[in-house]
Write a structure and sequence with these properties.
- The complex is a heterodimer of chains A (about 260) and B (about 160).
- In chain A, about 85% of the residues lie in helices and about 0% in strands.
- Chain B is of the alpha/beta class and about 160 residues long.
- Chain B has 2 domains: about 30 residues; about 110 residues, no CATH class.
- Chain B is about 25% helix and about 30% strand.
- In chain B, about 20% of the residues are buried.
- The chains are: A mainly alpha (about 260), B alpha/beta (about 160).
- Chain B: This is Outer membrane lipid asymmetry maintenance protein MlaD.
């Protein structure tokens, strides 16, 4: 009984301590003035996190768009409302699937890589030796990776939505023969720049912050061993995926509820 | 990899993402860049606007010649008042023109159908801020069904 209370208290303190560490890490990493050297580091990270994620994002987007188009068509054609397919595909992608699926793929492709990279740096004491050389690893390692991920993810989400809508039109217009004028015109009549595109962008930006933060925190504070790295990587993917899905619901309530 | 190549790829990535955003805004959301200067405003009063919304199209013979800018209620007479923003490139309409709220298809979205009236010597063209006098309200399906049932009862 007493044992249980002690354990609950200890784990609560542990969680609060971790949250505090994460906030302090982020604030210390972000509190630095950008200079040319820093921008070069960020560019390199945009390459590793953004450009190298393109294949998985684009292929996944194309197939998700095509599946949405096909399933939507099969339902809508029963009401002879297949012209509304464009609206359905575009709204589903811009509001939900674009940001969320991109975030999940990004967590799996880039978040895990960030954690493993930083964790291995810690295990091999590269971070400690940087500190010995009076180089702050938070500013040299963490900050560029954070900014690189935050810049890359919304851009990936735009590309995802665009190619998925194209995939939807490929199935709807080119295969199933919906009139292309109707497909695009009905879509244009119901998609709103502010409510759909901007809110989708906002979602992907928030997801990017969450994923990069979790990934870097787990890497930076992992147990310096091979087991520790593997646990940290798993934790990054699981935690950030769950948090993205839960946050998406909360954000949707505020934006469209 | 050399720094130049890396910068090239990142540049391509950012530019293609910007292009995707531009495509989304222009092609998917149908955002047009025509400014305020290319339109003029007309006003029309309807008894019932049905499901008309701001940004609904105004059509002449099926061609979109403007959009609904705002919908308001005139508090003295309790009639809805609709402001239309008309594209200047299609010119002006005579004051004998009539506006009706129509529905695209059976259950589609509603739009304003404008029918240009005749032009005579003493007929002036509608200018910025003028009112279209001759209007027809939206057909409300429930009202129609109600009238239909009522007329059947009368016959019996």
């Amino acid at each position: 009984m007493i044992q249980g209370i002690v354990r609950t208290g200890a784990s609560t303190l542990h969680v609060i301590g971790q949250l505090g560490l994460a906030v302090v890490m982020l604030l210390r990493a972000l509190a630095c003035a950008p200079n040319a050297k820093f921008l070069r580091l960020v560019t390199a990270q945009v390459y590793f996190l953004g450009v190298l994620s393109l294949p998985i994002i684009l292929v996944a987007g194309l197939f998700i768009g095509m599946v949405l188009g096909l399933q939507g068509y099969n339902v809508l054609v029963g009401y002879s409302a297949e012209q509304s397919l464009g609206t359905m595909v575009a709204l589903a992608l811009l509001r939900e699937l674009g940001p969320v699926v991109t975030a999940l793929l990004f967590a799996g492709r880039a978040g895990s890589a960030l954690t493993a990279e930083v964790g291995l740096m810690k295990s091999t004491e590269q971070l400690a030796s940087m500190e010995m050389m009076a180089v702050d690893p938070l500013k040299r390692i963490i900050a560029p990776r954070f900014w690189g991920g935050v810049i890359a993810m919304p851009l990936l989400a735009f590309l995802f939505s665009m190619i998925a809508i194209w995939g939807g039109s490929l199935v709807g217009v080119d295969w199933k023969g919906i009139d292309s004028g109707g497909f695009w015109a009905v879509m244009q009549a119901s998609v709103n720049v502010y409510e759909d595109i901007f809110f989708g962008f906002l979602k992907s930006l928030i997801f990017a912050l969450v994923i990069c933060w979790i990934a870097l925190f787990n890497g930076f504070y992992c147990q310096p061993s091979s087991l520790g790295i593997s646990q940290a990587t798993t934790k990054t993917v699981v935690n950030s995926s769950l948090l993205v899905l839960a946050l998406d619901f909360v954000l949707t309530i505020f934006m469209y509820g | 990899m050399s720094e130049k190549k890396l910068h090239f790829f990142v540049g391509c990535f950012v530019l293609s993402a910007c292009a995707a955003l531009l495509l989304l805004v222009l092609k998917v959301a149908g955002f047009n860049l025509t400014g305020q200067s290319d339109t003029y405003q007309l006003v029309a009063k309807f008894d019932n606007i049905g499901g008309l919304k701001p940004r609904s199209p105004v059509k002449v013979g099926g061609v979109v010649v403007g959009r609904v800018e705002s919908i308001d209620l005139e508090t003295e007479t309790y009639t809805p008042i609709v402001t239309l923003s008309m594209f200047k490139k299609y010119g002006y309409y005579p004051e004998t023109s009539s506006a009706a709220i129509l529905t695209a298809g059976l259950l589609g979205e509603q739009f304003i159908g404008l029918r240009a009236g005749f032009i005579d010597e003493d007929i002036v063209m509608l200018e910025q801020g003028d009112e279209i006098e001759d209007t027809k309200s939206a057909l409300v399906l429930e009202d129609l069904i109600g009238q239909f049932l009522y007329s059947i009862q009368d016959k019996e």
